[in-house]
Amino acid sequence: MGIAPKATERWFILGTAPPGSQGLYCRFVIAISPARLRARLEALARFGALPGGGVTRPCWSPPHEAARAWLLGELRAASLQAWVDPAGNVFGATGPPGLGADRPVVLTGSHIDTVPEGGILDGALGVLAGLECLEALREAGAAPRLPLAVAAWSDEEGRYGSLFGSRAFTGRLDVERIPEMAAADGERLVDAMARAGFDARRAPEARAPAGAVAAYVELHIEQGPRLEEAGIPIGVVDSIVGVRRARVVFTGQADHAGTTPMDRRRDGFLAAAEYALRARDLVVRRGGGRSVTNVGVVHVHPGVSNIVPARAELVHEMRSPDADVLAGLAARCESLARRVARRRGVGVEVQPMSATAPAACAPRVMAAIEAACATAGLASTRLHSAAGHDAQNLAAVTDAGMIFIPSRGGRSHRVDEMSDWEAIGRGAGVLLGTLLALAR
Question: Which CATH superfamily is domain 34-240+359-439 in?
Answer without folding.
Answer: Zn peptidases (3.40.630.10)
